[in-house]
Amino acid sequence: MAALWAMGTPPGAAKLAVRSMNMGKPPEDPSKKQQFPGVSTSFLPHEADQIYTDRLRNEAAANYKNPATKQWFKEHRRKKRDEEKMAKIYRDFREMSRSRSEALLAAGAVASTR
Prior knowledge:
By secondary structure, the chain is mainly α. It is about 65% helix and about 0% strand. It contains three helices and no strands. The protein has helices at about 1-5, 45-65, 65-110. It is elongated, with a radius of gyration of 31 Å.
């Protein structure tokens, strides 16, 4: 099977749905390597840093403006609350069972000494 894939996509097989891009090999000279991805090296370092952080900030802010993202966070918070409620119920039940069994053991110990 691997031999078929080595020759390319076999007939009848699904093509990959993930789109990707080959940007080539990184430059050999480290001075030509971009310090901040996507920002031209023609900018001064402090300008490039500002541009890069602004892009990251805008990208992060765009995620929270998306209605689907808001809905996901809302559902996630609700699920976490429900899980905490169930965990509290279990903790309370175990504590109640433990205290009840300790009381029974103590009562049995007193009764056996008589």
